[in-house]
Specification:
By secondary structure, the protein is α/β, with parallel strands linked by helices. The chain has a single domain (14-195, 220-242), classed as NADP-dependent oxidoreductase domain (TIM Barrel), CATH 3.20.20. 41% of the residues lie in helices and 15% in strands. It has ten helices and ten strands. The strands form two sheets. The protein has an eight-stranded parallel beta sheet. α4 links the parallel β6 and β7. α1 (26-39) runs parallel beside α2. This is Aldo/keto reductase.
């Protein structure tokens, strides 16, 4: 089945499901990219800090499709924020990947205590206008962080990539995104498997004859989120993508909503730097 697309607020669009390269070993990255594209993915999520942008680029050159057929994201790491540093960081990412432009460049974390994300955002706006990146967005931004960059520049991120899974459902942040036309993209969408044994997940999996991972990934799509699960195995990549031919019921979605605990698997954006 064809991967559904989500509209971005700059007139472009992106596939609703892709795969991420976090913790993919550098010497396996090219192979994972090729396997993912062969499985049917058309969105790859990378980052400078992952240490595998060269492998991402090699995979793009080996994938057997025109470059423009695959949506590529990468990110500016925390120690490269600021006007000049961000400009250099983006140039270095483009060189490592071996492309003239990426589809989406994100600020990886707001690092509010450092106070540089506004300058970084202004630099990404300039780089977008120069054609170095096609779209710009953020990752792990809170409502106050979003309000600041939007208020200061008038430019709304196309996307905010945040930790989101059944135990951390981010309803308030998702509502802010919806009001401002920002796509919510879920990282660690399976919550490290901590909800696999939960009653609502097990019940939906049993009804559908699917794995807990598949029903949780489908839950993300039903919420309207983009989602980027990770696997280094060809079979795992294929399983994660095989979520387009079934749906959860309203009752199942309501049951999933009861799994919220506020539990993070990663850092708190308010303090992480």
């Amino acid at each position: 089945m064809t991967t559904p697309m989500l509209s971005l607020n700059d007139g472009r669009s992106l596939p609703q499901i892709g795969f991420g390269l976090w913790q993919v070993p550098a010497d396996q990255t090219a192979r994972v990219v090729v396997d993912g594209v062969a499985a049917g993915y058309r969105l790859i999520d990378g980052a400078a800090i992952y240490g595998n942008e060269e492998g991402l680029g090699e995979g793009l050159r080996r994938m057997g499709l025109p470059r423009e057929k695959v949506f590529v994201t990468t990110k500016v790491w925390n120690d490269r924020q600021g006007t000049d540093e961000t400009r250099r960081a983006v140039a270095e990412s483009l060189a490592r990947i071996g492309v003239a432009q990426v589809d989406l460049m994100l600020i990886h974390w707001p690092c509010p205590a450092e106070g540089r994300f506004l300058d970084t955002w202004k630099t990404l706006i300039a780089l977008r206008d120069e054609g170095k990146v096609a779209s710009i967005g953020v990752s792990n931004f809170r409502v106050p962080d979003l309000e600041r960059i939007i208020g200061e520049t008038g430019v709304v991120p196309v996307l905010n990539q945040i930790e989101l899974h059944p135990r951390l459902q981010q309803a308030e942040l998702r509502a802010f995104h919806a009001r401002h036309g920002i796509v919510t993209q879920s990282w660690t969408p399976l919550g490290q498997g901590r909800s696999f044994d939960a009653g609502p997940v097990q019940a939906a999996a049993a009804r559908l004859g699917r794995s807990p991972a598949q029903v949780i990934l489908r839950w993300h799509l039903e919420l309207g989120c983009a989602v980027i699960p990770r696997s280094t195995r060809a079979a795992g990549l294929a399983e994660n993508l095989d979520i387009l031919d079934f749906s959860l019921t309203e009752a199942e979605m309501a049951a999933f909503a009861t799994l919220e605990t506020g539990e993070r698997t990663g850092p708190d954006p308010a303090s992480f730097s």
